[in-house]
Amino acid sequence: GIINWLIRILICGGCLVGVGILLAFIEIKIAGLYKKYCWDMITIMVILVSMAIAIYFGDWIKEVLPINLLFLLLFVQLVYVGIRWYVKGWRETRGYH
Fold first, then answer.
1. CB-side exposure of 63: number of CA atoms within 13 Å?
2. Measured between alpha carbons, how far is 31 from 9 in angstroms, rounded to an integer?
3. Residue 9's pLDDT band (boundaries 50, 70, 90)?
């Protein structure tokens, strides 16, 4: 009855709040990495070029890859941040700054 539905709503609401807090934490960490490693003109150019490609070639990309374009842009950014983070760590371990 009603109590069963209330319990379901509370469980789903609690899960949503937990996921929201987790996403906010992950976003704060990603923003910190961006500021530390990637906040320069190269990053701005990568963002603009990837957005332009997604806008102009969106239909073609969707034919080849049945994927959400926003997800594709986020994936490109994650790969880019990972590469920058790796290169910076590699340079720091060898004494380049």
1. 4
2. 32
3. confident
Residues 15 and 54 in one domain: no
Rounded to two decimals, the pTM is 0.43
CA–CA gap between residue 64 and residue 83 (Å, rounded): 25
* The token pair that represents 9 in the structure block: 């709503």
Alpha carbons within 13 angstroms on the beta-carbon side of residue 51 total 6
State which residues form the domain around 60: 40-97
Side-chain-facing half-sphere of 3: CA atoms under 13 Å:
0
Q: Calculate what percentage of the chain has a pLDDT beyond 90.
A: 0
Place of tokens 């709503």: 9
pLDDT, position 38: 61
- Is 33 part of a structural domain of the chain? no
Measured between alpha carbons, how far is 16 from 50 in angstroms, rounded to an integer? 31
Q: Is 65 left (phi over 0), alpha (psi -120 to 50) or beta?
A: beta
